[in-house]
Amino acid sequence: MHVFITGGTGTIGSAVVAELLRHRHTVLALARSDGSAQALESAGAQVLRGDLADLDALRSGAAQSDGVISLAFGRDYASPDALAQAIAEESAALTALGQELIGSDRPIVAVSGTPWVPGRASTETDPLPTDGPVGGRGRSVTALLDLASHGLRSTAVRMPRTVHNEGQGGFAGLLVDAARRTGVAGYPGDGTQRWPAVHALDAAVLFRLVLESAPAGTSWHAVADEGDAVRDIATVIGRRLDLPVKEIPQEDFGPFGPIFAMDQPASSAHTRDALGWQPSRSGLLKDLENIQP
Question: CATH topology for 2-162+198-225?
Fold first, then answer.
């Protein structure tokens, strides 16, 4: 399969590109900079220059492909306005990609987060949130899945709060960055809230499986660790960086504060049973031992 991918140089994307190539797919990847283009070419991918806001480039990439994996998302989360802009850009991109593929029966795999369900781990059948700080992502992914009735094998892989590799990435990575910046390994609330996690290399396998065989209109959970307590995550960070570990106000985490403070475990039981996905890499707490002081 010739696969068009956006976000192919990120923590998840670079692992997905390698996984696809290893299984004899070919890859056309969107690159917004010379550095990204060089990294993708070195990995063995073909390159299409452009960025997520370049809808003509997205349509061109999709038109040349047998399937699409959409991973790109803005990197500026410093303010609610920046997060909203990133979500709006992603929504426009998914709309353009979906419209290009309608009627072709080709697959497109979008990415979102696992939903929050009070009192229990979320499952693949739970709906994505459509309000709140990231509600726009839920609306755009849901709209893409709804195109399954229009000749599009649209699917979604829901990612946990931390996608990690060598102690880096995801919400845990943001805690590491904040600890380095402030001199405190902090966590919001009482620290008992749980975050699900997955190793990037395990997640990449799931993206390939979903691209190859998942039915139209379905959602899947890339969850290896159902939920690690945030205080435990902060404790490992503090030990690795030789910093004190303590509760700090959720407001100190900016627009992600309310999300950081939520208990949000997630299950992948259906995903494992239906697709035969078996994550095998290090769990989050073990992987955080790779943080360099």
Answer: Rossmann fold (3.40.50)
